[in-house]
Structure formats: C-alpha cells, structure tokens
Amino acid sequence: MDNSFFNYLQRIELLAFFSGYPLIYTLIVFTAGNQRTKNNFISKRISLLPLGYALVGTLYLGLQLKNLYPNYSVENFKLTIQEPLLITWALLSILFWLPFFSKKLVISLIHSLVFFFFLLRDFFLQLSAKPGDRSMVRNSMKLYTDSLLLNLSAFVFIALLAFLFSFYNKQSRA
Amino acid sequence: MKLLSTKTLLILLVLISGYGYIASCTRDNELPPPPATTGPIINHGTNVHLPGSMTVGNSNEWKVDKAHSSVLWSTNYVGAAGLLTGRFNQFGVHDVTDAKMLNYVSAGQPLLDSSWAFYENEPAKTYFNGYVQINQSNTGEPGRDAGCNVSGMGTTAIVPGTQNLTVTNIARIKTTEVKFDPASNDYIVTVKFTWQGKLAAPLTQTIVGKLKYIPKATVQFGTAAGYDVFGLQFKFQFNCRDFGITSTSISDKIEIEVNVNLNNK
User: Fold this and answer.
1) Chain centroid, CA B173 distance in Å
2) Calpha distance A125→B23 (Å, rounded)
3) Which range among A39-43, A68-72, B115-119 shows the weakest confidence by mean pLDDT?
4) What ipTM was reported for this prediction?
C-alpha cells in the first residue's frame, strides 16, 4: 500500500476539524447582522468566532501530538505527516488566539475555506463516479456533520467562558 | 454590503451542504422492513385424501401403509426417570363398533383401514377412527411384554393366529372435531378415547391432540412406476390412572404418537 491511503486519512482529519467552520461562521454572522433576528447575546459574542476556531485548531494540534506520541523526533514526524503543507496551514489556526489575528473575523473564514474545498472536491469526484457509488460523499458528509457540531460546540464553549468571565468581573467590581 | 455578502455566502454554503446530504443518502442505515407477520407461516393446501374402497391400483384411493406406520407410546419410568417406550404391533384405522369386537382368526388386521378422510383445507370434514390391541405392546423385552404388561393392563395374552379385538384388549379413538391450529400449520383434534384398562367397563374420555399433515409427494424408485405418499402424525396423552392402571413402573401420563403413512399404489 502506498502513502495515498495515509494522505486520505490525514485529509479526513482536517475535514472533520475545519470544514464545518464556514457554515457556522456565516450563520452566526448573518444572525448577528440581521435586524429581525438580531440577538444581543450573539451580536456581542460574534468577535469570539475566531477564538472558537483557534480552540478547534488547538484540539487538532492535540490530536497530532497524540498521533506522534511517544516519538517526537524529526524522523517520526517526516514518516507520520503525509500532508505537511496542509497540516501546517491547519495549525496556523492556533494563531487566532492572538488578538492581532482574531480581530479580523474574515481571515478565519478564508483560512477554513481551504478545507471546505476538500468537501467540494469530493462532490465533483462523486459526480464523475458510477451511479450508486456514494460512499465517499457519504463519509465526507458524516465528517462534515461532525465538524459542524465541533465548531458550534467550540464557539458555544468560548462564548460561555467569556460570559462567565465578564459576569465574574462585574461581580468583582460590584 | 457586508450583510449581503455574508448572506450570499450562507446561501451558497447551505446549498452545497444540502446537496452533499442529499447526494450522500444511500439509505444503508435504513432498517429492513419488518416481516409481514411475526407469527408462524400457515399455508394449507387443498389436498383431499380419501380411502374409497381401497382398490389396489386406483391412484385416487389411498391405502394405509401399515408396514411403515406405527403407534408408539412413552412414559417416564417409575414416574421420575427417563422414558420407557414401546409400540403396538397391531393397530388399525377402523371404527370398531361393539358388534365388531371379536376375536378374529387372522394373521393380519381383519378390518379394513378405511375409516378416515382427510381434507387439508376443510378440517371440519376430516375424521379418523383407530384402535390398538393392548396385548400387542412391544417394548423389546419379551418377558415384560408377555408378562406384567398383559396382567397390568387388564388384558389377556396373545393367541397366535388370532386378532383379539375384544373389549378388554382394545383401545380406540374416534374424532369428534378437527380444526386448524392457529399457532402452526397443524390441526387441533378432539377425540373420544375409549379403553377399559383395569376398570369393570370401558371408559370414554374426551382428549385433545395435535395432528400434523405431511403433504403429498410423488416417489419413484428405479424403473418402478411412481406413486404418491403422504403422512399423518397424531399426538396426544392421557392419564392411565383414570383407567385403573396402578403400576408404579410407569408415570400417570402416557404419551401416544401415531404415525401413519399412506400411499395410492
């Protein structure tokens, strides 16, 4: 077996972590910006979106470290990492913890769209596949669903943390 | 403008995601449909089997193949151990009326096995009458069969060349109702079971048993002409204590299994 299988495995990991972010992002930004569905809680926390994304990137880093455990040598890194460019790009999402990057919301969207294109690629491959062979798209959509849930959970988690933090600060001041 | 672009992107992403979910729908996870019924598969055919006058060579008239039929009994030894079993060497399918309860000088059964009819799909029309000669019980132990079995059952020993169909040596069954078994492909049969046993006079009990029909099939061996066969299996049980049997070697409950093979040769 060549390395293509391991490449595929690493791509589906990326798909599972990052592909759901664009939809979550646009949904929350749209909800926050729409006058009819304007919600103060969401509007105030929209700036936390990149932090949620950074949390997902951190979790992805944790997975990669777990995959490399216990050998963190360069040799093992070269053997294990089949998609170094993509993985490096994915790990850049950790930078959104920094206020410099997190202030620009749209950058996180652009960053995640790279992984969403993998999903689109699977759709095009499915279109050219023989009828009935939908297993690849089906698998991708399962991962996409997981990614949606993960990114939504990450945002909710960060929003709750921020809410508790501000609440604690208000209590401390009072 | 920002809202518009976000809205456009949202619509695009929703459409793409929606397409993905629809395209990926393989229904592999769908549970198979439940069976049409969880009950037994009951399928009664339309076979009708009648003995007619039992003319040899008439394929419309069915004959009991006694050589390949049997009447078996079983009971728990001393009422607590394994089965004690036996068979009746002489039996027949005939309605033995009081007038026919005689000693017949004959090597085989003196009465025609013609007292029956079987309608696979009309059980109300089905009936049969049968009998066994009690002293012809065969357990494979000659000492027991000709000894305590004879005295213990209130009958007399076998007289070679004679078929003893007298009242003390005959047990009879006569159907009163045959109906479909709702739980299987079989039939529920109610019979009147008559036996004197060790009583002063014959006792008749109403007993319910189960009849199984083994459907008609055609057989042919070698170059011989083919013929049809079918089978009937009737099972019931009774309490021998009701008939004055006091032997402690057998339990109260006696199970009877009648296997009758019939052909149209």
Assistant:
1) 13
2) 12
3) A39-43
4) 0.82
> Could you state, in order of their start, the residue ranges of all structural domains in chain B?
48-263
- SS3 label, residue B238: strand
d(CA A87, CA A58): 12
- Structure token pair of residue A68: 């490399």
Considering only the beta carbons, identify the residue of A22, A34, A123 that sits closest to B23.
A123
Please give the single-letter amino acid code of residue A98.
L
Beta bridge partners, B212, equal B233
Q: Is residue A1 very low, low, confident or very high in pLDDT (cuts 50, 70, 90)? A: very low
Q: Kindly state the DSSP code that residue A129 receives in the 8-state scheme.
A: S
Q: Which long-range contacts (CB under 8 A, 24 or more apart) does B210-214 make?
A: B210/B181, B210/B186, B210/B234, B210/B235, B210/B236, B211/B178, B211/B186, B211/B187, B212/B185, B212/B186, B212/B187, B213/B118, B213/B120, B213/B185, B213/B186, B213/B187
Using a CB-CB cut-off of 8 Å, the residues of chain A touching B28 are: 138
Q: Write phi, then psi, for B30 (nearest 5 degrees).
A: -70, 135
Q: Out of A22, A29, A141, whose CB is closest to B21?
A: A141
Smallest CA-to-CA distance from B237 within B14, B109, B107, B76 is with B76
CATH architecture of residue range(s) B48-263: Beta Barrel (2.40)
